[in-house]
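User: Design a sequence. Structure:
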């Protein structure tokens, strides 16, 4: 609670019953390690291996503790309804990318490769934990699939092509002030971006499912985002249009449900992703 900006503390206390003095569990995924250890929403976390959980910068402290602890068991002293009890959680190393929440009015989330940043306004759009998990999973997929590096390579290649044109025109006595290198850099940066976003949507859904979230209805987050950003309903420049994202997520949720029913591994199959949506989006781009 103390880690939040002061103006949000009273609202958070009333809405979520978050303690002023102890770290409070806001949600627990049904099939997570914490759930298996008996941790429940509303629990107050007092100590980790007899080390007191601080009131300030709590999330960072927990992240650092778990990272340094590795996969050794953690003894959690938890207070529930005034009664203290010890629970044992044995971590499994899965992802080393930290997630940061920043207070911002823009509905946005992004990854810089070494971290995932969620703007607080996303919490207004993502109505459930599963929907928020899709957003986080999407950004994690960008980092793990190498999209950032590919975009950088495309940008450099575009700049090089444009610079060659600028130089050639300059030899003719006309200065372009780098117009072609700038334009080609932008084109390179956006090359394949719609495809990258679709891949991130697909793989991110698997991440959310493997973390224990039920994806039924989670695709509604894209409809909610479209209301915040109306152009995304029909214009596909760097992201798939809303209808495509919505339908794809429904198909992925069905695919994951079928794999769970068959007890098959929850592994994404990028080579089996449909291409008809890409064709539709290409037409949309040509119009605009």
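Assistant: Done.
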């Amino acid at each position: 609670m103390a880690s939040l900006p002061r103006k949000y503390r009273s609202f958070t206390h009333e809405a979520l019953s978050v303690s002023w003095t102890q770290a409070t569990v806001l949600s627990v995924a049904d099939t997570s390690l914490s759930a298996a250890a008996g941790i429940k929403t509303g629990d107050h976390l007092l100590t980790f291996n007899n080390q007191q959980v601080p009131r300030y910068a709590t999330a960072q402290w927990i992240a650092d503790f778990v990272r340094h602890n590795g996969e050794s068991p953690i003894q959690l002293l938890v207070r529930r309804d005034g009664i203290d009890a010890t629970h044992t959680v044995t971590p499994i190393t899965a992802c080393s990318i930290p997630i940061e929440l920043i207070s911002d009015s823009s509905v946005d989330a992004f990854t810089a490769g070494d971290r995932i940043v969620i703007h607080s306004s996303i919490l207004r759009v993502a109505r459930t934990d599963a929907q928020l998990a899709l957003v986080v999973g999407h950004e994690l997929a960008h980092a793990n699939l190498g999209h950032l590096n590919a975009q950088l390579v495309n940008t450099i290649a575009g700049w090089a092509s444009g610079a060659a044109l600028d130089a050639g025109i300059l030899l003719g006595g006309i200065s372009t002030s780098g117009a072609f290198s700038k334009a080609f850099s932008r084109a390179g940066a956006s090359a394949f971006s719609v495809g990258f976003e679709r891949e991130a949507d697909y793989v991110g859904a698997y991440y959310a499912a493997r973390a224990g979230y039920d994806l039924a209805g989670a695709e509604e987050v894209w409809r909610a985002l479209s209301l915040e950003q109306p152009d995304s309903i029909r214009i596909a420049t760097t992201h798939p249009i809303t209808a495509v994202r919505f339908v794809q997520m429904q198909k992925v949720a069905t695919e994951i449900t079928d794999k769970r029913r068959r007890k098959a591994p929850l592994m994404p199959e990028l080579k089996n992703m449909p291409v008809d949506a890409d064709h539709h989006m290409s037409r949309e781009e040509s119009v605009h």
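Confidence is low (pLDDT under 50) at residues 232-238, 274-288. The two ends are 46 Å apart (CA to CA).
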